[in-house]
Design a protein that fits this description.
Elements (H helix, E strand, L loop, with lengths): L1 H18 L1 H11 E9 L7 E4 L1 H14 E12 L3 E12 L5 E4 L2 E7 L2 E8 L2 H7 L5
Parallel strand pairs: 1-7
Antiparallel strand pairs: 1-2, 3-4, 4-5, 4-6, 6-7
């Protein structure tokens, strides 16, 4: 099942980069658990915690309406019931035109083939520690 989880995340990133918000909302309905939790404290944007599928969809719509957002994965790491993604993220404010480049590392947690949480981390080692792996 874990390689299937990697493919779910990879397919999601490709669709979002290709189609934007429509793909994001379709994917949320398809692969996200109704009780999902997004935890991105201290990241840009700092969302704190977003809980529940509908709140997650609203957050996604707000982010993609405010920013041009491009995610590129340098690495997908199979961590059993989780997938670690070492990323490059470029956001550009639609109104301001200001671009911010960052290198977050995301952890997608899975249960029953659905994403149950997404955590944003500052470093790969921090994310690997969170899923019980060492660099």
């Amino acid at each position: 099942m874990s390689q299937e989880n990697v493919e779910v995340v990879r397919r999601g990133w490709e669709a979002i980069n290709r189609e934007g918000l429509p793909a994001a909302l379709r994917l949320v309905d398809e692969v996200v658990d109704p009780d999902i939790e997004l935890r991105a404290t201290g990241r840009l944007p700092d969302v704190g915690r977003v809980r529940g599928r509908e709140a997650f969809k609203k957050w996604f719509a707000q982010i993609l309406g405010t920013f041009e957002w491009r995610l590129e994965a340098d690495e997908f790491i199979d961590a059993g019931d989780a997938v670690v993604v070492v990323a490059r993220q470029a956001t550009r404010g639609r109104a301001s035109g200001v671009e911010v480049i960052s290198r977050p590392v995301f952890v997608y947690g899975f249960r029953g083939g659905k994403v149950t949480y997404i955590d944003a981390h500052r470093t790969k080692s921090e994310a690997l520690d969170a899923v019980g792996l060492r660099e």
